[in-house]
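Give me the 3D structure for DNA-3-methyladenine glycosylase II.
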Amino acid sequence: MAKNLVTTVKEKSILQEIAPEYWEQACRELMKQDRILKKLIPKYGSVFLVTRGDAFTTLARAIVGQQISVAAAQAVWDRVVIASKKKVNPKNILLLSVEELRAAGLSGRKVEYIKDLADHFDSGRLHANQWKDMDDESVIKELSSIRGIGRWTAEMFLIFNMVRPDILPLDDVGLIKAISLNYFSGEPVSRHEAREVAANWAPWRTVATWYMWRSIDPIPVEY
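Predicted structure for DNA-3-methyladenine glycosylase II (223 residues):
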């Protein structure tokens, strides 16, 4: 999960430290269905997927973290927080100039993306209040209409913000690497092969994916 962002100690207070209601059931069933997860899940049984709960923050952090290291992404995000007077929301992002956002470390392209994201939220063009009742693909389609947000980012949103239970982000480098190491002895894995492995995880592919990530990076990373 190379694109994900580290959560600082200060931010822990705003994270929801309660396991998703389906987590325990999912772990039980996955351990019955999959021999690898039967061994893997008990190693990390005391930790679980957590969510920050704020849609704009989740998506903004995903944009900031695109194509840079975890450490670099956190440093840039910290500067964006400071520039936004420690309250990152659509209105505050729209009030910042291009120069101020560039000074925080954002590329010109990412400034365009985060401004467009803020405008989508501020103008009400997104149906955020309806997302909880929409299926996964419908949410992905709407989010993908925002500049700089593709399928991977939308899937990260479904996992880390909406905590949907059955998301399989096949574009995630970390997931493919973990499947390769755990199921194919490190041999290269195609999307088709990864999907076949994950068929055994349904309807809890989010949970299985989360444990795959843990197998290559034991420290949980949140948006």
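Residues 1-15 have pLDDT under 50 and may be disordered. Let me know if you want a second pass.
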